[in-house]
Amino acid sequence: MPALLVVLLTLITGAALNAPMAQAVADAFQVRPGCQANDMNAGPSSVSRCINGTSFRTRSSLRPGCVELPPAPATYIYTGFECGGAATKLNAEFIGQARLISYLNGGQGGPVSPSIQWEMRMPTGLVQPASLRADVVRYAAASPPSSSAALRLIEVKGDWNPDYGQRAQQVAGYVNLLQSRYGMTGATVDSTISGYTDEYRV
């Protein structure tokens, strides 16, 4: 049955995170501030990459065969776990996430630009949750790293997800975390592809 993917593309300012800082867990997730050059590695493997002056682990969860191929035509029927995860309804969001990444990458297939990252793991400094993950992140990888450089975040949500109504608060929380904990003042919600929606069959 057709599934609708809706991507939040509205600029939102969220409330500052005010949870008390607990034992820092950044080292466990290989976050290193002050890296000297943005990572130009276009490979799909999950590794630590320098992004605007801080090293984050990115590109986990999604299967390379999905993000490095053009989006399948409307007649194609995906399996629920084709792009990542197990065969559950919620994991069908991985399909929409991979299709969006391919679209942002030009829609022709091939290695994904280093300026497009996904599943960027952001340690919170708290015991629970220890980290958060941004679905899609866009920035100018070829530019010198700077905490004030633009870092645009996109949250992918299918309308079947029970958290669909919380998508705005979720991505705003990611922006606040990057600004308050990592000093990345250029972090914002991506508003440059307003109106993007996608439909695919699972």
Spell out the blueprint of helices and strands.
Layout: E1 2-8, E2 32-33, E3 47-51, E4 54-58, H1 64-67, H2 92-104, E5 116-123, E6 131-139, E7 151-158, H3 167-182, E8 187-189, E9 197-201
List keywords for this structure.
three-stranded antiparallel beta sheet; disordered N terminus; 3 helices; 202 residues; globular; alpha+beta
Mean pLDDT: 82
Helix content: 10-25%
Please mark out the parts with pLDDT under 50 across 5 or more consecutive residues, or reply none: 1-30
Order of helices and strands: EEEEHHEEEHEE
Number of domains: 1
Oligomer: single chain
Number of strands: 9
Radius of gyration using CA atoms only: 16 Å
What is the 3D form?
A: globular
Question: What is the helix tally?
Answer: 3
What distance separates the N and C termini?
A: 6 Å
> How would a crystallographer describe the biggest sheet?
6 strands, mixed
Query: Strand content of the residues, in percent?
Result: 25-35%
Name the structural class: alpha+beta
Quick summary:
This protein is of the alpha+beta class and 202 residues long. It has helices spanning 64-67, 92-104, 167-182; strands at 2-8, 32-33, 47-51, 54-58, 116-123, 131-139, 151-158, 187-189, 197-201. The chain has one domain (2-15, 26-194).
Structure description:
With 202 residues, the protein is α+β, with helices and mostly antiparallel strands. The chain has one domain (2-15, 26-194). It has helices at 64-67, 92-104, 167-182, and strands spanning 2-8, 32-33, 47-51, 54-58, 116-123, 131-139, 151-158, 187-189, 197-201. Strands 1, 5, 6, 7, 8 and 9 form a six-stranded mixed sheet that branches. Strands 2-4-3 form a three-stranded antiparallel sheet, with no helix packed on it. Mean pLDDT is 82; it is low at 1-30.
